[in-house]
UniProtKB/TrEMBL annotation, chain A:
GO terms for cellular component: plasma membrane. Required for the biogenesis of c-type cytochromes. Possible subunit of a heme lyase. This is Heme lyase CcmF/NrfE family subunit. Residues 89-295 form the Cytochrome c assembly protein domain. Its main location: membrane.
TrEMBL record, chain C:
It comes from Novosphingobium piscinae. Its main location: other. Residues 42-183 form the Thioredoxin domain. It is found in: Cell envelope. The chain crosses the membrane at residues 12-32. This is DsbE family thiol:disulfide interchange protein. One of its GO terms (cellular component) is outer membrane-bounded periplasmic space. One of its GO terms (molecular function) is disulfide oxidoreductase activity. Keywords: Cytochrome c-type biogenesis, Disulfide bond, Membrane, Redox-active center, Transmembrane, Transmembrane helix. GO terms for biological process: cytochrome complex assembly.
Length: 652, 151, 183
């Protein structure tokens, strides 16, 4: 029953999206069309119906209704409730439904709240949003119906995949999806602005909260995904430049560039066509990402259900949306009037530099990700890894970070570097001192040394915009910028320290033996079998003592799951303020049941936690900026409502 | 250091962006040529070996009876074959759970000066439905030959 | 991706679209290529490799090459209790068994108790069920997943390979292939 109800809601939502699109087109063609009044309310109801459909799916998963195919394939009655619920979006169909739901809700919100833009631009934006949603509705209804029934009803579901039962994985994909959806709203705004040729500060201000929101979710998603891969794969690395990871990084890079060009457009009415272009690129990157992940055209270490048919559909949507938007751009951008001018030494220039560098990194990552596909077209099979990505992206990251140190201190429009002599000297001295120290501590490791030198300099410089201000009066968006930039420095320090100072040890130990790794002494105390709800495991008990201190116990496991049969290594992490001890239990090296040696892989990773702490700080900065912007927007909205109300009364 | 001639601002911005992006493209193309790691089957490796030290990937079947652990307990030596050629491989680390004699494997690493393949990482066949793409061509005849030898 | 603010050169505005078109072309090619992911066994038309596998459950015997050379065409079904498509094809296998087709099963990486539950629930159309705990036979016959079904003629030669579950529409096709194999 619930499944049919959900499907009905989905069909209705799709019909309303069609109506929203149609009436939008009619309203744009003829300015005084009565249909114009229809667009906003329809957008609101469409969002509500999509939410209803998604609620139905959650319900079906919560009660493990195995007659629904999606539930049978992805859930299991023995799963904990949290994973049952998470199962609703942990698969292709459910995640697509989540996508349209969030997009519909965002459309509703825009329809209710947004008043700054001229009405035609608003209608064009909602029209664009309806068009994008419509594609996904068609996709859901015709190619991946989440409510499809299964006959006969299986006795038990298949979705007990142990690798997927992890809090990180339950919330990681939806976080990324929210980011992708936010970019689709930004895309709708860009299309709306292009259609009506209203590219200006009002457009940038209306779009900015959505870009910021999307960017926050992408940041969180990438950070969480990196940590998940770090502790789940048991390989000791935190970023593998895998296609699936790059698929989430590319939209983030584009969104970061968009965020900065948006602020130029909002504050100074410059970079107009470029901002629109970035809006299109950012959304196309999230579509390309979804496509790469779901179509399976690139091989990845991350297990993912792939299906070329779905890939075809996503590719078709990608071609229609982005091809259409770029064609529109080609026709319209020439008529977008030129923005305000600025001098070479100005905040604008620094932000342009940031945009160019971010685009460069984006290009490097995109080319590296797709290169195996290109060579395969010529019959050569290759894979591209860190030896390409690390130095190539550093070529752009390093100049970007240097400008990042100075840029926020510059004034809009025109400034002189001599005014900034003091802060530049301070940051430079810090950087040089750190460079000297890094060369002594980690000789020969070029990239980590650069990172170790840059991180403190950027950290100091990122705090300088607060200099000479009364902290209580600093506005939230400025706090946001400072914290986000500081977060970049923190994450960079973590990455560089991990690269420079990690010590790794691979040993075969008998029970009772001890081995050193970095400042730690690790003793293998015992190995014993343990059992969980759907697995059995061998668990090692390690006594780890830091620099001769009291031993702490840590328990890496080798787990054997059933249904489906699968073995995984559960790494164990010991976190101190200055780093993490990472331990993995391997196979038996030799000997019989009573004696013999066990393989252990141990890492001491100084400061590695700063990587994810930095990521969290960056997201926090974004959140503060978003709250600050939205609060001031709301204040303005309330004030203008009051004025309008007074006018009406006085006019009477 | 101050204002650019107003008229040319767009042009200059466009030029800077264009140069940056072209430079990025050229850099990426050059780096990809030299840094991408190529995929070899044992027969390819025997016929046309890459220079020692270059990162490559080797795919094939783990030959039956070839897996041996070194005395240190953590180094594994085995032979990867495809029915035509055999390559000795050494790997220091914890082997993946699905790494077994007679099953498929993709090893990432490099040749040393003695023609032995030193693997940094082993990717074993992931599940019933997953075969590394590069192994697709060999699952049929070569894999059959390899498996037949093991039975 | 594109130059900012390139008003002076209208043609330059088309560059992003062209670049994007190139990407789409690459993706289309990539997708067209991945369709070959269904790996056909090159053993079709050849004799089965020699094997001898133990019984997977007590009620049915195991399977060896000689069993498949009794002069009668038959089906060899690669399955597992942990695979949902295998449950989906169970009614079709029942139908084929009822039509007089002999079916042998190979259970891939399965457990005895799970298999018992599976067969009790979905029926047992198999004359023999072999346990292939390491997936060795599966690799040997060029199967890349479960379920797959092979048509074997009376001399132990593979005549047809069906990849994925047998849908109701496929039953007639399988029967036709069996008839061909009998000739």
């Amino acid at each position: 029953m619930i499944a049919e109800f959900g499907l009905a809601a989905l069909w209705l939502a799709a019909a309303l999206a069609l109506l929203q699109f149609g009436s939008g087109v009619a309203a744009l063609r003829k300015g005084d069309s009565p249909l114009a009044a229809l667009v906003r309310p329809v957008a609101v109801v469409q969002g509500a119906l999509a939410l209803l459909a998604f609620a139905a799916l959650l319900l079906v998963f919560a009660e493990t209704d195995l007659s629904v195919k999606l539930v049978a394939l992805n859930s299991h009655s023995a799963k904990p409730m949290m994973y049952k619920i998470a199962g609703a979006w942990g698969n292709h169909e459910g995640s697509m439904l989540l996508w349209v739901t969030v997009m519909g809700l965002a459309g509703s919100f825009v329809a209710v709240v947004e008043r700054r833009l001229p009405e035609p631009t608003m209608i064009a934006t909602l029209l664009g949003q309806a068009f994008v949603s419509l594609g996904f509705y068609v996709f859901l209804l015709f190619a991946s119906n989440p409510f499809e029934r299964l006959n006969p009803v299986p006795p038990e579901g298949q979705g007990l995949n142990p690798l997927l039962q992890d809090p990180g994985l339950a919330f990681h994909p939806p976080t990324l999806y929210l980011g992708y959806v936010g970019l689709s709203i930004a895309f709708s705004f860009a299309v709306g602005a292009l259609l009506t040729r209203q590219v200006g500060p009002a457009f940038a201000r209306a779009m900015r909260p959505w870009v910021l929101g999307a960017w926050i979710f992408l940041t969180l998603g990438i950070t969480a995904g990196s940590y998940w891969a770090y502790y789940e794969l048991g390989w000791g690395g935190w970023w593998f430049w895998d296609p699936v990871e790059n698929a989430s990084l590319m939209p983030w890079l584009a969104a970061t560039a968009l965020l900065h060009s948006c602020s130029v457009l909002a504050a100074r009415n410059a970079l107009r066509a470029w901002t629109v272009m970035l809006g299109v690129v950012a959304f196309s990157m999230s579509m390309v990402g979804t496509f790469l992940v779901r179509s399976g055209i690139l091989t990845s270490v991350h297990a993912f259900a792939v299906d070329p048919k779905r890939g075809t559909f996503i590719l078709a949507l990608l071609a229609i949306y982005i091809g259409g938007a770029l064609a529109l751009f080609a026709f319209r951008a020439a008529t977008v009037t030129e923005g305000e001018r600025f001098a070479v030494t100005s905040r604008e220039s620094a932000l342009v530099f940031n945009n160019v560098m971010l685009s460069g990194i984006l290009g490097i990552v995109l080319m590296g990700t797709l290169y195996p596909l290109v060579t395969e077209a010529f019959g050569e099979r290759v894979s591209v890894g860190p030896p390409y990505f690390n130095p190539m992206s550093a070529v752009f990251v390093v100049p970007m970070l240097i400008v990042l140190a100075v840029g926020p201190l510059l004034r809009w429009r025109r400034d002189s570097l001599s005014r900034l002599r003091m802060p530049m000297v301070v940051a430079g001295v810090v950087g040089l001192a750190a460079l000297g120290l890094a060369i002594v501590l980690a000789p020969g490791k070029v990239l980590p040394i650069i990172g170790l030198a840059l991180a403190p300099a950027v950290a100091v410089a990122s705090l300088l915009p607060l200099r000479g201000r009364k902290l209580a009066q600093v506005k939230l968006p400025l706090w946001g910028m400072v914290i986000a930039h500081f977060g970049i420095a923190v994450a960079l320090l973590g990455m560089a320290a991990e690269g420079a100072f990690t010590t790794e040890r691979l040993v075969a130990l008998r029970v009772g033996e001890t081995t050193p790794v970095g400042p730690w002494q690790i003793r293998l105390a015992r190995i014993e079998p343990v059992a969980g709800p759907n697995w059995t495991a061998l668990e090692a008990t390690l006594e780890a003592s830091y620099a001769g201190g009291k031993p702490i116990l840590t328990h890496p496991q080798a787990r054997m799951f059933w249904a489906p049969v699968q073995n995984t290594a559960e790494s164990a992490l010991l976190t101190r303020w200055n780093g993490q001890l990472y331990t993995v239990l391997g196979d038996k090296a030799d000997g019989d049941a009573n004696g013999g040696r066990w393989q252990l892989r141990l890492w001491w990773k100084p400061l590695v936690t700063l990587i994810w702490l930095g990521g969290a700080l960056i997201a926090l900065g974004g959140l503060l900026a978003l709250v600050g912007r939205v609060a001031s927007d709301l204040r303005r909205l309330v004030a203008s409502d009051k004025i309008a109300f007074r006018r009406v009364r006085q006019g009477r | 250091m101050s204002a650019i001639k107003a008229k040319h601002q767009r042009l200059i911005l466009a030029l800077i962006a264009l140069v940056a992006i072209l430079a990025a493209g050229a850099l990426a193309a050059w780096a990809l040529r030299s840094q991408a790691s190529y995929f070899y089957l044992p027969a390819d490796l025997a016929a046309n070996p890459p220079e020692a030290g270059r990162a490559i990937r080797l795919g094939g079947m783990v030959e039956a009876g070839s897996v041996a652990k070194a005395p240190d307990g953590v180094t594994v030596r085995f032979v990867v074959g495809d029915g035509k050629a055999r390559v000795p491989v050494s790997f220091k680390g914890i082997v993946p759970d699905l790494f077994k004699e007679g099953s498929g494997v993709v090893a990432e690493g490099r040749l040393d000066s003695e023609g032995r393949f030193v693997a940094d990482n082993l990717l074993a066949k992931h599940d019933e439905k997953y075969v590394p793409r590069e192994m697709k061509d060999m699952t049929a005849d070569q894999a059959r030959a390899a498996v037949r030898n093991t039975q | 991706m594109s130059a900012p603010e390139t008003r002076s050169r209208p043609w330059a505005l088309w560059v992003p679209l062209v670049v994007f078109g190139a990407f789409v072309a690459l993706f289309v090619w990539g997708l067209a290529r991945t369709k070959d992911d269904t790996v056909r066994s090159r053993l079709v038309g050849q004799a089965l490799p020699a094997f001898d596998l133990p019984a997977a459950i007590a009620e049915r015997p195991g399977l060896k090459t000689a069993d498949l050379k009794d002069g009668k065409p038959r089906l060899l079904n690669v399955f597992a209790s942990w695979c949902i498509p295998c449950a989906a094809e169970a009614p079709q296998l029942q139908k084929l068994a009822a039509a007089g087709v002999s079916i042998d099963g190979v259970a891939i990486r399965d457990r005895r108790e799970d298999l018992g539950v599976f067969l009790a629930r979905y029926g047992n159309p198999y004359a023999r069920i072999a346990a292939d705990d390491l997936g060795k036979l599966q690799i040997a016959i060029g199967s890349s997943g479960v379920p797959e079904t092979y048509v074997i003629d009376g001399r132990g030669v593979i005549r047809y390979q069906h990849i994925g579950d047998i849908t109701p529409d496929d039953v007639a096709l399988i029967l036709g292939k069996l008839k061909e194999a009998a000739q």
